[in-house]
Amino acid sequence: MEHQILRHIITEQHRVIKNAVIFPRDYEFDPKANYVLVGLRRAGKSTLLYKIARDLVKNGVDWSQIIYVNFEDERLNGFSLADFDDILGVAGELTDKEPYIFLDEVQNIDGWEKFARRLADQKYRVYITGSNAKMLEWNIVERLGARYFIKTIYPYNFNEFLTAKGIDHTTNELYDTLLSGRIVRGAADYLSHGGLPETLIYSDHRDYLESIYQKILLGNIIARNDIRNQEAFRLLINKIAETIMHDVSYRNLAKSIRSVLNKKVSTETVINYISFAKSAFLLFDVKDYVSKFTDKNTTPKYYFIDNGILNLFLLNKASVLLENLVAIALYEKYQDHLFYLKSSKTKIDIDFYLPEKKTAIQVAFSVSDHAYEREVGNLVRLTKNDDSVERFIIVTSEEEKTIEEDGVKVEVMPLYKFLLDDLVAFDITDKK
Q1: What is the domain range of residue 9?
Q2: I want to staple 179 with a disulfide (CB 3.0 to 4.6 A). Which of 36, 46, 173, 321 is the partner?
Q3: Do 327 and 308 fall into the same domain?
Q4: Cα 365 to Cα 415: distance, rounded to the nearest angstrom
Q5: How far apart are CA 299 and CA 301, in angstroms?
Q6: Same domain, 227 and 149
Q7: Rg of the Cα trace of the chain?
C-alpha cells in the first residue's frame, strides 16, 4: 500500500473528526482497554471513535498520534491483510510518540483479526468497528483472546435521542406540563422514525432510512453472503415485518414465501437468510420462556433493531411500532435474558418477561374495551401460575393509571415514561 495514500487518508480523517458534531451517548470506555465495536450500519460506531480520539487529544495526545483508517474509503479498494503493516509504517513516519490505532469498518478485510491481535500483543491501544456480527464468530473471538472488549452499539436509546434533540428530560421536566409535552412529542418522533443518529439531520426521514436499508440489504447482507435469490430474501424481510407481535416458525415463513413467488424456497434457506439479517444487526429475536428447547429456537418472535427501518414496511400500524420499540428498549439492556410467555395449557400470553427482574410486560395502544381483558387478564392468570413475578406493567401510547384486579397491581404507563423508567434506562457504567 502506498504510504502517501495512507498519510492522506489519516490526515484528512483528522479534519473529519475535528468537525464532527458529537452528542453524548450512554457508553463508557476504559482508557486502558482495546475495543471492538459492532452494530447496525450508521448506528453511531464511528462517532464514538471520534469522541474517543477527541478525548485523547484533550488529555494531551497529539493529533499525529491518532492513526485513523476508514476502510470504506474508496482509495483502500484492494487493501489486503498484507497491507496492514503499512499502517504501522505510516504511523512511524507521522509521529515518534505512541500511536493510537483506529480501524473503522474493518470487517471488509479478510484476516483483520490477525493484525488486531498482533497490535494488542505489541501493546498498542486499538479501537475497531464493524457492521457484521460475523466479526464475533468463535474462531475470530478466539484469535482476539482476552485482548479486546467487544461492545455492541445500538441506535440512540430514548435518553440519547432526547439529548440529541435538546429536549430536557430530568425528573423535574416529567412533572412540568409544558416540558413533559415536549418529551411526549419526542417519543412520537422516536416511535415513527427510530434512533439512527442521522435521522435527526435530514428532513426527509423516509428517503434517508430507505437508503440505509438498501445499503444494509445490498451491501451488508446480499453481497457479503452471495445471496442469489434476492427476491426471496427481500420478501422474507417484508414477511417478518408483518409478523411483529406474533411468534412465527421457519417453516411457515418458507411456506408464505413460496405461495407468493410460486418458487421452491426451503426452510433451510429461510434459516440461513434470517441468520444473515441478524448478523447485520437488522433483526433480533425473543424466545418463549416456557417452550421446549426445539420450539424456543424455531418459533421465536422477531423484531427490527430500529423502528424507522421497520416503519418502511408498515402503513398505519402504530401498535406494531409500539411493541417493536418496547422490544428494542428491553433487548438492548437484557439481551438473551428477555423472553415472551405463551402457553396453550394455561392460556397465558405475555408479550415480554424478565425472570431476573421478576417483571411481566404487556404492550397495548390502549387498555380500553376488549384490550383490557387480554392485557390485564393475562397478567392475572400469570400470578396464579407463577408467584415469583412481582412487577406488572402495561405500556400504552398515552394512558397512565394503576389497575387493581384480583389482587394484582398493574402499572399502566405511557411509552415515554416507560422508556425513561429505571427498568430500561441505562446507568452509563452498564455499558462500560
Answers
A1: 3-153
A2: 173
A3: no
A4: 9
A5: 7
A6: no
A7: 23
